[in-house]
Amino acid sequence: MTPGTTGQEESKEESQEQDVRWYPDADDAARAVTVERVTNAFTEAYGHAPAGVWAAPGRVNVIGEHVDYNGGLCLPFALPHRTYVALSPRDDDQARIGSAQVPDADNGQGGPRWEGALGRVAPGTVDGWAAYVVGVPWALREAGHTVAGLDAVVDGLVPLGAGLSSSAALECAVAVALDEVAGLGLAGSDEGRARLAGACVRAENDIAGAPTGGMDQAASLRSREGAALLIDCRDFSVRHVPFDLAAAGLELLVVDTRAHHALTDGQYGSRREACERAAALLGVRWLAEIAPADLDGSLQRLRGAVDDPEEADEIARRVRHVVTEIDRVRQTVELIDAGALAGVGPLLDASHASLRDDYEVSAVELDVACEAAVGAGALGARMTGGGFGGSAIALVRREDTERVAEQVAAAFAAKGLAAPAFLRAVPSAPAGRV
Ligand code: ADP
Ligand code: MG
């Protein structure tokens, strides 16, 4: 999906304002158009109407980054932007799938159509986007469920590779579709949805070969409209935290930096390894077990246990991020529960600084976005998602949103960076049948 531009035509000449590129709204009309398009594409491809259309949302994470694999807390919510899957089960083991988001040209995704036997799907056998789809029936079968072959067409409103979790949206849309056509009955309860999320995580880790800690799939399957999802990643228990931006006169502005520095180049893995090593050295299962009050003592012990001083410093900074970030999630939820949503701004800023300086997963585009947003009056801003590009979020007063977006766009232009694209995030419904 490509963002459009909305002009401030009258004042542009004078102030040299940037065009601000907004993603099209994922409102009811846009969603209805997408459902119709995916239904028609299915019918054209396979000669009959689909058994149904299912959809799952992308997400933003309000706070709690790189803590899911440390047993920590995070606070994502589902976007109104959803991925749609028109699907019918088959009598045999074949899968035929197509996506409107994959261009015809060979771009390393393997082209827009894929066909093969599900029984042949195994780690390392499927390249490109198809792995996110056929990984799901594979994982459901691994979990002991009976799932038949399928025909499917994918279309959607979640920007790909923007850190808004189009990958989980795709997996989760397929998961709720298969749940229904195979009569698994999992999507009817939160416990069952947690199991579907687990299958989606396996699909992404084992078949798509992309590391993911489970936050994205939980957000897509287990969120509630109007609420953020507080996830305790030790056991993936959840609490719905009402998140009423409008009542507080606020908006959450998403800045897609359109920089896609690959996360699979080992950076994510090396952060995870550092955390696992630190946990082993400190004798805990998860870094989440370290209380903020014990942080200094723990860092001292780590420094004593690692010979190379540079290495010791690096591992200490990684741990400091994780422990302080989990504490920031707690503080954020306390503020929200107390009706003080506007008060979380400084926690977002602190989260960004910690990810930038201690965890070192930011990127120049993300730093520019956050700095410019706060400079333009945002209450707080941070990168969201894994980092190294992708999106940032800024908490803004409703009347400031356009101006903040303009100034972020202007800051990108001034630094010679490609134009970012914007959308407004509101907590929306989880995956389900359309
Ligand atoms: P993010 O999840 O932040 O969008 P990822 O790199 O994790 O970024 O996932 C993006 C990948 O997921 C795409 O490159 C593609 O392989 C796959 N994908 C997501 N949505 C779709 C879609 N609608 N059609 C085809 N592939 C998709
Ligand atoms: Mg992803």
What does this structure look like?
With 434 residues, the protein is α+β, with helices and mostly antiparallel strands. It has 12 helices and 15 strands. The protein has helices at residues 9-15, 28-46, 130-142, 166-181, 190-207, 215-222, 267-282, 295-305, 309-337, 345-358, 364-375, 401-414; strands at 4-6, 20-22, 52-61, 73-74, 76-89, 94-99, 113-117, 150-156, 227-232, 237-242, 250-260, 380-384, 389-397, 421-425, 432-433. The strands form 3 sheets. It has a 6-stranded mixed β-sheet with strand order 1-2-14-11-13-12. Strand 12 and strand 13 form a beta hairpin. Helix 4 crosses helix 5 (190-207) and helix 9 runs antiparallel to helix 10. The longest helix has 29 residues, at 309-337. It is globular and about 65 Å long. The protein binds adenosine-5'-diphosphate (ADP) and magnesium ion.
Brief summary of the model shown:
With 434 residues, this protein is of the alpha+beta class. Helices cover 41% and strands 22% of the residues. The radius of gyration is 22 Å and the shape is globular.
- From the alpha carbons, calculate the radius of gyration and give it in angstroms: 22 Å
Number-wise, the strands total 15
- Ligands bound to this protein structure: adenosine-5'-diphosphate, magnesium ion
Shape: globular
Share in β-strands = 15-25%
Mean pLDDT across residues:
94
In whole angstroms, the N-to-C terminal distance is: 20 Å
Q: Supply the number of helical segments.
A: 12
What string gives the helices and strands in order? Answer: EHEHEEEEEHEHHHEEEHHHHHEEHEE
Largest sheet: 6 strands, mixed
Alpha-beta classification: alpha+beta
Low-confidence stretches: 6-16
Strand order of the largest sheet: 1-2-14-11-13-12
